[in-house]
Amino acid sequence: MAIFGKLFGKVLYYPGCSSKFVNKDIQRGHEHLLTSFEIDYVKLPDLEVCCGLPALHLGYRDDFQSLYNKNMKMFRNQRIKMIITSCPTCYYMFKKHYPIEVKHISEVILDNIEMLKKDYKGEKITFFDPCNFLGANMLYDQPREILKNVNFDVQELPFNREESLCCGFAVKENSPKIAHHMAQLILKDVKTKKLITTCPNCYMHLKENSEGIEVLELNEVLI
To answer: How far apart are CA 88 and CA 101, in angstroms?
Structure first.
């Protein structure tokens, strides 16, 4: 089956810039899960470029088009048939702007949920929805189903799913005080010892601003 897949197209693991360059433990954790699920995937760190969302959202449409063209050329040359990504931003971009099949890592985990052996015996945790999921609301349920399948008691924040608040990461460089305040608005409503999210940027920013609450990326409670 692996040979058949390689002949007719490959599955690319595309971690996203944050996991690739900053939060490398997230990338390693997701690769561990994909390998444990016996998913035949490739990595192309020297060929892939940014999905283009920052350029597009800041109005640099020519730069976005250049990134898009580079990615599409690479996908064609490498015979990529599907992308698995760890990043909700990349998921959103590929889903909306690229003519290629894409899955978020949470979808892949849920597809292979029977292979997870963890049992947290009803431990209460809080789940935080990244606001990047606003354009892809079919992903709100998958992380919650995964967490419930390993026997977490999932608690909700007052603002969740499509009404989730921004963690503040997006304004961190220009307005660090505002970014800190935005993180605190979320953290003050967490009533459990652990907060779990699926966004590398939210994970990093909330963890930096948290005192007394353990902030985790989804993969960290599954391995």
So the answer is: 15
